[in-house]
Design goal:
The chain is of the alpha/beta class. The protein is built from 7 helices and 10 strands.
């Protein structure tokens, strides 16, 4: 869910400006899952641009303060949200940890790196929400350690209906600075693509697995 349309539009403008978002309806990208996608989103690029990373972190902090208050910790999802989560926790002056996709295969075999007190309220930070699989994996890892996940906040979300249902079933509130719907609206308003390409972009979000 996008909370502020102006912030969403500016986020999309920034992401497209630095080519963190790339579109190609005729020669789609292939995800690890095998899904064919007209969009490739690499939000880690924001770290290279001081003005943009400050905008992202400041707006995420604003949302967190308004929705969750001060009695929280922050957890970033590896690897894309490790740095962003760290910036946010620094601004809010709260504890921070990050969550691996799976426990480390050696040493202490940690999946959660850092020290957040048991039963703490945690806000999880993602750079991108797609199918929801990796995001929910991180959330379940935190819950298994006795932490209270208050919600998840991402830079960008594809807003798949299937992913949204997964979060609802797990009783997790998700919010994003911007989403795929905002992106398509901006592209359509600017007339940057042909009408049939806009239709293909809209249909992809409705059924990404069978779109190609």
């Amino acid at each position: 869910m996008v909370l502020d349309k102006k912030v969403a539009e500016q986020t999309v403008n920034f992401l497209t400006q630095i080519n963190a978002i790339k579109l190609n309806t005729k020669n789609p990208f292939t995800w690890t899952s095998g899904i064919k996608s007209p969009i490739y989103c690499d939000n880690r690029l924001v770290l290279s641009y001081p003005k943009i990373r400050e905008f992202i972190a400041d707006n995420m902090c604003h949302i967190i303060k308004n929705k969750y208050g001060n009695d929280i910790s922050i957890a970033g999802v590896a690897t894309g949200a490790i740095a962003v989560g760290s910036m946010i926790s620094e601004r809010l002056n709260v504890p921070y940890a990050y969550v691996r996709p799976e426990p480390k295969g050696h040493g202490l075999k940690n999946q959660i790196e850092g020290n957040i007190e048991d039963k703490s309220n945690v806000v999880v930070i993602e750079d991108l929400i797609s199918t929801g699989k990796s995001s929910l994996n991180a959330i379940n890892a935190l819950r298994s350690e006795g932490l209270n996940v208050m919600g998840m906040l991402s830079i960008f979300s594809y807003s798949f209906d299937s992913a949204n249902k997964k979060f609802i079933n797990e009783k997790v509130t998700i919010n994003s600075l911007a989403d795929y719907n905002t992106l398509v609206e901006i592209i359509e308003s600017r007339g940057g693509l042909q009408h049939d390409e806009i239709i293909r972009l809209k249909k992809w979000r409705e059924d990404p697995e069978n779109w190609s």
